[in-house]
Design a protein that fits this description.
The chain has a domain at 1-50. The chain is flat and about 35 Å long. The two termini are 25 Å apart. A hairpin with a 2-residue loop joins β4 (39-46) and β5. Helix content is 0%, strand content 64%. The protein has 74 residues and is mostly beta strands.
Length: 74
Amino acid sequence: MKPTPYEHHHKDGSLWAKGQMLDGVATGYWEWFRRDGTKLRSGYFENGEQVGEWTTYNAQGDIHKVTTKRRKKK
């Protein structure tokens, strides 16, 4: 099965998040946005779990911090 594009919007209609879903689960690269359109956060999902580097941006759109998410052990 192939991932499908997904978008979620703020109540005012502006883009809140965009990424891909596979069988109802987040997968691949995702981005979140503030109401003014500036990027808030971005990163990757595998099987609905945050993995790898996640970047948080300040209100000007500059990188604020980068966090590395490790896979949870089962």
